[in-house]
Amino acid sequence: MKLKKILIDTLKYVFFLGLGLFLFWLSMRKLDFDEMMKEIANADYLWAVIGLVLAIISHVFRSLRWNLLINSMGYKTRLSTTFYALMVGYMANTAVPRMGEFMRCGVLSKKEKIPFNALLGTVISERLFDFIVLLLLLLAVVLTQWSLLGEFVVRMTQPLVDKIETNMGILFVLGAIGLVVFIVSIWLYFKHKDNFRKLPGYEKIHNLLIGLAQGIRTIDRMKQKGLFLFHTAMIWFFYILMMYIPFRMLPETEGLSFMAGVTLLAIGSLGIVAPVPGGIGAYHFIAKAVLTELYAISGTAAGSFAVITHAAQSILNVLVGAIGYVMLFFVDHKPPSNDKS
Predict the structure, then answer these.
(1) What are phi and psi of 43, to 5 degrees?
(2) Mean pLDDT, range 243-258, rounded to an integer
(3) Within 10 A of 216 (CB to CB), how many other CB atoms are there?
């Protein structure tokens, strides 16, 4: 059974890695490779470095915000350990999509003696909140730039809309079946609750769900909601800056506006959250499409910008993540903040 799971996980990883590489090839296949290499070689990397500094600042604010959620459950944390754990998670995400969320919880749980389930609940909570912020940002971008984005949005979404309309009957049947299965499952659980409790592993799953629920409710229970919103605003403000400032790396993109940075962040984030390792391919495809279709940047410059910014972020995550792991487990010998011994 364990070998089967390893095989399935490996096949899934290879599939999504292949998908990412295909999207990368798709976005770069028509570009002049020599010209793009010349663009990349002649880029002003000072602006890329400034972008990375801004990225680190955003990660510090994310660590401060995570601390608020953890502290609201009655656990103590230090900014340094939370930041290092966060960066270890980003390092893991560079290799395996979504692995970072579990990795950062596991690392911080081990270092500060905080239940893993509760930490995972806080991560789910903040991810849900960030998803809402991203949706609002996308809505604001579309509404404020509809004359620019309208045709682009329609063109990008029309194939999906056509497929939904064509398969409406099948989707309705599948949805109805799913709803019935869900309702029956709930009914069976409550009808045979005592029998379910006797099943092996029930207690473990039950405790996991309790811990997740505790973590997810942290935003509602948190007293410093204003500070939480401030940290959130700072996270996204520095996200925008780390996208906008690197425009100055290349002659063709240096004239792009701050709003272009907001647009690229909002739409480009869809590529980062795609289930491909480190967003490879998906980010390049979306970033190049936004720059060429919306702002009339040449494919070569757009491709060069996407390659440089993605590579810089990946290197930052791996480097700082590795440093964070060393600091947590080989340099920092302070006792856990929640050690009751």
Answers:
(1) -65, 150
(2) 96
(3) 19
Give the pLDDT confidence score for residue 280 in this predicted structure. Answer: 84
State phi, psi for 260 to the nearest 5 degrees. Answer: -65, -35
Query: Cα separations (Å) of 25 from 18, 109, 146?
Result: 10, 40, 30
> DSSP code of 330?
I
Contact 122, 215 (CB under 8 A): yes
For the stretch 162-197, pLDDT in tens is 666 677 777 788 888 888 888 888 887 777 777 767
Please tell me the distance from the alpha carbon of residue 271 to that of residue 167, in angstroms, as a whole number.
26
User: Are 115 and 109 in contact, with CB atoms under 8 Å apart?
Assistant: yes
State which amino acid sits at residue 36: M
pLDDT of 5-37, one tens digit each? 677 767 776 776 787 778 788 888 888 889 999
Contact between 56 and 320 under an 8 Å Cβ cutoff? The reply is yes
Q: 322 — phi, psi (to 5°)?
A: -65, -40
Q: What is the DSSP string of 125-192?
A: HHHHHHHHHHHHHHHHHHHHTHHHHHHHHHHHHHHHHHHHHHTHHHHHHHHHHHHHHHHHHHHHHHHT
pLDDT value of position 202: 66
Contacts of 88 (CB under 8 A, 6+ apart): 100, 103, 104, 107, 321, 324, 325, 328
Rounded-to-integer distance, Cα 113 and Cα 144, Å: 47
Enumerate residues 6+ apart whose C-beta is below 8 A from 302: 253, 287, 288, 291, 292
How many residues comprise the chain? 341
Confidence of residue 301 (pLDDT cuts 50, 70, 90): very high
Indicate if the alpha-carbon torsion angle 137, 259, 281, 278 is positive or negative.
negative
Please state, in angstroms and rounded to a whole number, the distance separating the CA atoms of residues 309 and 323. Answer: 21
Arithmetic mean of pLDDT, 83-95: 93
